[in-house]
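Handout, section 4.2: multi-component inputs.
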Amino acid sequence: MNLPSALFLAITLSLAAVPAGVTAATPAASEQLQKIDQSTWSGQLQLVVTTYGAASPKTGRRDAGKRTQATLLFDRPDRFKLVLDPGGKNERRIAGEGDIVQWHDLATGLRGKSLAADLVDPTATALLGTVAELTTHAPAKDLPVAKGSPVLGARLTPARHGAHATAVNAWMHAGQPAGFAFEMADGGRVFVAVLAFKTNVALKPSDFEL
Amino acid sequence: MNLRPSYACLALAVIAVTGTSGCIIERRWLQGWDEVTPTLACPGDVVAVGFDFLGTETCRNEEQCASLHPTVVMSSSAGAFATRTVTAYRHSFDFIPVADETRVNFDIDRGSVRVPTVRVDPEGRPIDVVMEHIEDIGRIVTLVRGNRETELVHDGMCAGGMPVNSPEPLPDTRNTSPNLRLVSLCNRNGVTVVATLSGSASGETYSQALAPNECLDTGAPGVPDGITTSGLVAVRPMFPVPGTLCSATGPSSPPPTLRTVAVMACR
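Output:
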């Protein structure tokens, strides 16, 4: 997964935390997402991220995909820390605060620092920084799941020029996020399965250090 | 694309505050400023081409707005339509594609577009909308002849304690011809799956078990007629997959990815 994609996921997943009191499945997926957006200030998530390249123009098929464990910590309006392959051979830490994003590749020891505007998806920046404006930055439409489906879905279309994702399908179960499928502008696909989460957790500045 | 010199309000857009011209700048970013619909077309379909920088806004002063109109050149490959040069906030027209692929180009003469609106802020100051980072755009209109295959990737996730594979939408209806229909859905996995089609125009849902490489034929007896307009495909393995663990409280390992292939054709 390239860095812009990783960072896009990091911020967009600020949606992926559920506040206490949001109850089960009656509301449509888009309403559930809006409630989350309106009441979530910070979160801690465990994820499995699968990335695919663009489909072959000849066969229309995608590659086998690459699966990576990840953890995400965020604190609105402008702090996050994403760790890819935590504890593994390819651990990579990415932290953002304000206008600056830093990263550290533990396998190679390389470190870097960049302006967030150069690396972070503009939709992601907007979603992280503005509570309760989900549908402004990414209008949502509910997906027509069959009766009895264990998940409800909403399709979000980022409305920001330069967004790395052209569409996001969000899947919810009992008021909680289960997964997000990102259709990327380069034809790639990123799928994020949400395995665990805590919302509105107490965080301190050192939690966001590399 | 040529860039024109910025105007007073445009310069102030960077800091988004009141400027010497007395207007308030509201910055907007656009995912795309063009419209080409559908991009996946059937023979005989009318394709709409256009652009719109005005949206729901109303111009405050026609004369001032006219001086700020962008100039957009719309052209096509293989002469699908005559090149048009338009100076306006919005414009649209139709054409009927005949080539297998038609490229539609939008070339704009500036990188940002300013619209003086009739809206005012709470202090009564007029609001100007500025759309930035605008670039030239090229779209491809593909004419579907025969069958068109699309692979759907159904990733594994956990819905609480239940393993689930992500349902996948069939090609976005906004960019797909209304005359395109689902012909069949094929199981490309090494296991038997149950496929469910939903979101059809008639509201019907249909499920069928599919062995490896077996296809669901939407024209087969017993399959509802309207199912060819389905919008969503869900699949699940017929039997539990070893190694999958979904727990609402403990560690989880989502199920493996499943794949289907949707075959669509014009009707």
